[in-house]
Design goal:
Layout (H helix, E strand, L loop, with lengths): L10 H4 L1 H31 L6 H36 L2 H20 L4 H18 L1
Length: 133
């Protein structure tokens, strides 16, 4: 008999997508920092001014938030927001499955097949698969 958590995947396996995405995000942010730093220093040298960190950080944060607002937040809302609504079972996600099932049932009835027969088969297949584990 397996103990609790025996069937759970390892941390890096379970969260590999999030780890890769977070790593790519951090690498791109470090890249933005480095390239913007070079650009800011070149601009200061071109105007014969000294580089100043207090002037650099507001410019860096401003460009970071502009990028996040225009790209990152849209993507997060589309991906995470839709996943949350699907998980909660919004009317749109439920309606699509129910309509599709009703259409398939109607097609089966038109061909003289009882749709309940398939539900019973699915339950049997699920039980059989669970017994094999």
């Amino acid at each position: 008999m397996a103990g609790p958590g025996a069937h759970r995947p390892r941390f890096f396996t379970a969260y590999s997508f999030a780890i890769v995405t977070g790593t790519l995000f951090l690498l791109s942010w470090v890249g933005q920092f480095a390239f913007q730093l070079v650009e800011f220093r070149n601009d200061a040298a071109e105007h014969q001014q000294a580089f100043a960190w207090p002037e650099f950080f507001p410019a860096f944060l401003s460009s970071t938030f502009e990028n996040w607002q225009s790209e990152f937040l849209q993507l997060v809302w589309q991906a995470a927001g839709l996943a949350v609504f699907y998980y909660w079972g919004s009317s749109q996600s439920k309606e699509g499955d129910e309509r599709l099932e009703a259409k398939i049932d109607r097609l089966l009835v038109e061909r003289g097949i009882d749709p309940a027969e398939f539900e019973y088969r699915e339950e049997q297949d699920a039980e059989r698969q669970e017994g094999q584990r």
